[in-house]
Amino acid sequence: MSICRSLLHFNPPPLQRINTATLIFPHRSRKLRKFTALSLPTPLSSVSSSSSMGTPPEGYRRNVGICLISPSKKIFAASRLDIPDTWQMPQGGIDESEDPKSAVIRELREETGVTSADIVAEAPYWLTYDFPPDVREKLNRQWGSDWKGQAQKWFLLKFTGKDEEVNLLGDGTEKPEFGQWSWMSPQELVDHAVDFKKPVYSEVLKVFSSYLQ
Q: Which residues belong to any copy of the Nudix hydrolase domain (predicted)?
């Protein structure tokens, strides 16, 4: 899936802090692991949970979600380069035979450059959402797969570094996905998320609510 190579013009909400990445791509080819939304569906996608802690539902692509919180209990969010005016928490695919906790650390580093973070909590079940029909069709062609959607294992991490550590160019192993970042309240995060992720985000914030108060 292609990723926009120029920073989209966007007037961010009046949040605590905004950093803008300078998109200078390292001169090497890379294989992208992450799902990038291809278009915005009109209705909200469905979200469901699986009671199995170790096994995601069959037919869904395994993925980790990262709820990174600051000492003031704000949540890290970044704006997508490919979908204007939408923000999200970091996430990414789990490699084959990779432990989800290892995937969380890797994805956080690849997407944000952050290494100063401790895993505090793990969602007790997988959260799933279905791909909208047009997205699923495009992914089937590109990946040669037939995933229904994504099954996400969510983790809450506490940021222990300084804001200057955040680098949206990541660690140089992947193409940048984000243009700006901010610390957001739970409600700000849901309000600024793309529509088909809002149900998942609401559930994630409910699961981790005791850590956000």
A: 59-206
Phi and psi of 212, rounded to 5°? -105, 5
| Count of CB atoms situated within 10 Å of the CB of 174 | 20
pLDDT digits (tens, 9 = 90+) for 153-163: 999 999 999 99
Report the C-alpha gap between 127 and 84 in whole angstroms: 25
Among residues 204, 174, 201, 207, the alpha carbon closest in space to that of 189 is found at 201
* Angle ∠(85,1,79) on CA atoms, nearest 5: 20
Q: Is 181 helix (H, G, I), strand (E, B) or coil?
A: strand
- Per-residue pLDDT of 149-203, as tens digits, reads 889 999 999 999 999 999 999 988 888 999 999 999 999 999 999 888 899 999 9
User: Residue 29 corresponds to which tokens in the numbers above?
Assistant: 């080819």
In 3D space, the residue among 11, 30, 17 whose CA is nearest the CA of residue 170 turns out to be 30
Q: What is the pTM of this model?
A: 0.75
Spatial distance between the Cα atoms of 167 and 162, rounded to a whole number of angstroms = 11
CA atoms of 159 and 182, how far apart (whole Å): 13
Question: In DSSP terms, which residues pair with 181 in a beta bridge?
Answer: 19, 78
Give the 3-state secondary structure percentages of the chain, helix then strand then coil, rounded to 5.
25, 25, 50
What's the confidence (pLDDT) of residue 25?
33
CA triple 108-201-6, angle to 5 deg: 55
